[in-house]
Amino acid sequence: MRLSHRIYNLSIFKISIIFSIIVGSGFWGYGIDYYEAYHFSNLNWGGWQDRLGFRLSTFTIFDIHVGVYLVSFILSISLGFYLRQFLILKKMDLFFFYILIYIIGIHTWPIIMSTSNAMRQGISMSLIFISFGYLLSSKNLKSFIFIFIAIFTHNSGIFYFLVFIYLFFLKFITKYLNFKKFPGIWYLLSGIIFFCLTVFSLKFTVDINGPSRIIEGDYRYPFLLISLAYISIFSYKFRFLKYNDVCLFLYLFCFVSSAVLFLELNWQYERLMMMMTLPLILTFSLLLKKEFSYFFIFLVFIALLILTILNGMYDQGLTLLDTSKYKNYILS
Prior knowledge:
Blueprint: H1 2-24, H2 32-38, H3 51-57, E1 60-61, E2 64-65, H4 67-90, H5 95-105, H6 109-115, H7 119-136, H8 140-149, H9 155-177, H10 183-205, H11 220-236, H12 239-243, H13 245-262, H14 266-284, H15 290-310, H16 316-319
């Protein structure tokens, strides 16, 4: 058993190193956000909630921009850890399948988008993946620590931390009030209350009258459909919410992210859903028997990879290698 864990851990580490070298060296090109901000050295921007994210993503030593390598490595190793913990929970122990899904996963939109574009958000997403991994193994303190650190890497970290706090508040209430009758209704009502609280609080903390924009393609309605399907299915299959904290986290997340869309904070909604795309896919597979889960996870990950390619995510390696137009770029 120990040897098995060592093989997995060593594989994750090696793949993450190779991935970070490929991405960091610019093989796939760099995103627009990189040229606008992240190409600077040791950037000290932002407030308390995202300064660490700026520091890590622009970390430079001896004129070597380590940040792009570091962020790519963190993204890869965090997904590898979370995926491993999930497959342990599902008792899916085929090593080849794990490596195949892992390699596909780190080349899909949520990860590639974050390697040199949404870098601070990518760091936050990585910390949340690690937090989820510990949550699956009931190591709640470690889970709390990582999701707490995410607060200081990107604004979205605050959002996810609040979902985490509400999750354990809900578990506490559920345990001591002992809701035995209609537990599915209880979870649904709790989610609706969280939705209303989110709408109310965002009205006083976020400029909802600012410009409402769509980044590239409009993915709001497919994401909303996924959220509604998740809420509907797991309100009925509430036993998963009782015994799987990540499943419950994502259930609550579907409510609060819908509140963000309700206020027409469109690009914020897209980015929040991007961060949870892979965990949502994996959690849906809990509904299936193990043999069907293999096919479901593989097919959906492949579909996501194809959509990533068709969306032009890898075209930037060809179109953005000429950086001449950015040489005189001045930040506004």
